[in-house]
Amino acid sequence: MQLTLTNARIPGERGLIGSLINVVITDGIISDIQFVGATGAISLDFDPAGETIDLGGRYLIPGMWDTHTHFTSWSMLLQRLNLEGVSSASEVGERVKARHVTHPGTMVGFGWRGSLWEEEPHFSILDAACPDEEVYLFSGDGHSVWLNTTALEARGHAGHPTGLLVEDDCFAIWGSLGDLSPEELDKAVLEGSKAAAARGIVGIVDFEMGWILPDWRRRIGNGNDYLQVEFSVYTENLDRAIETGLRTGDTIASTEGLLRMGNYKLISDGSLNTRTAFCHDPYPGLTGKHARGMLNTSYDQLVALMTKASSAGINCSIHAIGDDANTFALNAFEEVGCDGTIEHAQLLAWEDIQRFAELGVVASVQPEHAMDDRDVADVLWEGRTDRCFPFASMLDAGVKLTMGSDAPVAPLDPWFAIASAVERTRDTREPWHPEQRIEPQAAIDASVRTRVAVGQRADLCVVDIDPLYASVEELRTMPVAATFNGGRLTHNAL
Fold it and tell me: Where is the Amidohydrolase domain (predicted)?
């Protein structure tokens, strides 16, 4: 099957008529690229077979990948209480009270960030707003959950002093909530897949907790073919993956090549907003055992589990946010000698940046987090933010970057990530540590896996504005005219 895209423009050659090209796609692969004459007209010897789509001089780039998502959780956000942007614990209580009136029953919310609030989260605030139903409110970073008394009792935490559970206690609740049926979940994920394709996305790395292989196989079998999906496994399912014979990169049968085995995911430390990211220096005002944050996994456990996974052909993805957590993760990669990624890599010791490159460890980063966290980082990581989200320094050292969203922690939109990496601001304020800005082409390269070249898979994104010359606002609102996944049109706004 052949498809030809005519009158496509190459980014970075603004105003040059000669940059128009015709791209021939055969069986999902780019089989030919023809440059159009200086007049901008299709050359006389060009006689395409099969279907043609005129791109009308729009810009053609590779299709986007989001390399860190929790896709089902993101897809369910519209079904749940949105707490993004709340400014106080009491405002949360007001929203819970209003939601309880219109949506009785178990309540799940997401998105609050309370590190700089004057009043700490407490179960009594939620009890006053909703005393008779279970309430679970996850923080915007996903590392803490705020419960009312009814929920605490239902989850075996009766008598908890605050109602705020962090890290493993939080993750246990995250993975067990079943307020939607599989049919409802699949419907939400289908709409989420369409929304992702509409932003130019052709593939995701899904770090959703649980054994999600059958979920995605079922979804693809039922017609959700908008995305390529690499699914991960956590410690509780590592043995299952090994016994099944899965190795990183394996394509799952009966999924049209869309579903592949990804990496083993291990969460080594916490997060900045929860003050559990494991750091070399203590957090302001904290003393005692967890003054520097929390290690969810000891170094010896980290090495043992990474060895187990890599010996079975499964690469490792290690969540590390604090500088000490990143050092430990790099030490483990060096000791085990395996391939993989460090997810987030937000705060780094200067000497560790070069180690990423030397060890070949990929830094899987989420630039939108830099915008979410800039204010709290200036407080909790005061004096260290010059090495916080150090994208330019990593690229200069030869580190391979891949970019994603960590949705639902940030919106699943690659253009948000690109804009934040390029400008390090998203409002009228000055850029935050502008020395760590990167060029638009570098940001795009970190967001794709293919090139517009003969022999490459036809994963393509068509945009109305040249991304190499776009303003930060134009990048964040980039009009996506079409998305092709292996030559299939998965989004069309031409």
Answer: 51-490
